[in-house]
Amino acid sequence: MGVEVAVEGLGKSFGRQRIWQDVTLTLPVGEISVLLGPSGTGKSVFLKCLVGLLKPNSGSITINGTDLVRCSEHKLYDIRKLFGVLFQDGALFGSMNLYDNVAFPLREHTRKSETEIRRIVTEKMDMVGLAGEGTKLPGEISGGMRKRAGLARALVLDPGIILVDEPDSGLDPVRTAYISQLLVDLNAQIDATILIVTHNINVARTVPDNIGMLFRRELVMFGPREVLLTSEEPAVKQFINGSRIGPIGMSEEKDEATMAAELAAGFDLGADEITGVPPQLEPTPGLPERQAVRRRKDRVMRILHTLPPAARTTILSSLDPTDRFGR
User: Fold this and answer.
1) What CA–CA distances, in Å, run from 133 to 121, 147, 153, 157, 237?
2) Which of 102, 245, 268, 294 is deepest in the core (most CB within 10 A)?
3) Burial degree of 136 (CB within 10 A; 0-12, 13-18, 19+)
4) pTM, whole model, 2 decimals?
5) Domain locations in the chain?
6) Which listed CATH number (3.30.40.10, 3.40.50.300, 1.10.10.60, 3.90.1530.10) goes with 5-227?
7) How far apart are CA 149 and CA 144, in angstroms?
8) Which portions of the chain are predicted below pLDDT 70?
9) Mean pLDDT, the chain, whole residue set
């Protein structure tokens, strides 16, 4: 079962370099969230702060009533067991076969028998489509298989929170689609709270229940997918559309003069703008419905009246009648 993560006023710096400040968001229980942002905005740093690998300079991260920023090392060790983390490259031990890699957290953090470990490892490897692959070494398999093995290892302690750093890194579009479907299927089966850091616009548009964006050392927005996908906020709109027209530049944000020059030259984002709210990925047939979807849509309907008219129209057109008028 998923766990709520409440982040309040979080700030992180390395020396005089401020990464971001005053980040406030709540990862809803059992929902999939995505964190977007240009390269270098500290998305991976945010994940490391959440799991306690880096200590923020300010703010709080509250899980089950415990503030991870101020708790003891012993308490932090216990809270970390709620997390499963999938790093960019899978972070597998090259000298261990896949079975031993997946079994490692169980041997390290529990006193389970090898019989029980074998049952759990077999179950998780089957869940990610790696049944029968346990004897292979990481160097003998594809990048997509390493990602899935890393995900299986992240699942063996039955985490309430799964953090996924750039799941599409190093993968072609087909393998990225498989990983996306796998994350949706996992959420349907175990109702875990999932946070994905990605640059991939297609993943951001089709996978999550909630989307957030870091830019200019701040969290620009965080909320239900329908709200972010119809947002007129310039940085969000530019990133979602993958356009060069907007406040995001090649190396950092553009200055006002550059943006004014683009407008004077007649550049128009609307010409190539992606419109509408695309369908969200659904679980593979035969799996349970994702309860997160109903919870999110209920939230959207409660705040719909606060959104701009164009956004309201677009969002309503993306919903079926049962979403609009209740079941």
Assistant:
1) 11, 13, 14, 20, 42
2) 102
3) middle
4) 0.88
5) 5-227, 231-273
6) 3.40.50.300
7) 9
8) 89-90, 250-275, 320-327
9) 88
